[in-house]
């Protein structure tokens, strides 16, 4: 089983746990909403697909910043623009902008 744990940047990720330790949805929670961990996983995967060879600390920081700005799913990341990338290192930003431009042309 996997459970959520906070990383150095406050981002949550999955960690192995014992059976039965998984948090259960509470009353009023809707399964159609993304959990924080699902959001972070989608953002992380999107980053790794579009900016190759990122260091772990950069992935963690960028995920936290994207989610904090509301880019918390693969769908929301489709509308990211240059001014949304103010927190990224220059070379990472350029690489991502190049990939975004190519995706828009397809």
| Spatial strand order of the main sheet | 1-2
Strand content: 5-15%
CATH class term: Mainly Alpha
Count of separate structural domains: 1
**What percent of the residues sit in helical stretches (DSSP H or I)?**
40-55%
Q: Using DSSP, what is the number of strands?
A: 2
CATH architecture: Orthogonal Bundle
Approximate shape: globular
Please describe what this structure looks like.
By secondary structure, the protein is mostly helical. It has one domain (2-15, 34-105): DNA polymerase, domain 1 (Orthogonal Bundle), CATH 1.10.150. Helices cover 45% and strands 9% of the residues. The protein has four helices and two strands. It has helices at 36-50, 56-68, 74-77, 90-105; strands at residues 2-6, 12-16. A two-stranded antiparallel sheet has the order 1-2. α1 (36-50) crosses α2. It starts with a strand and ends with a helix.
What's the quick description here?
The chain is mainly α and 106 residues long. Helices cover 45% and strands 9% of the residues. It contains four helices and two strands; from the N terminus they run E-E-H-H-H-H.
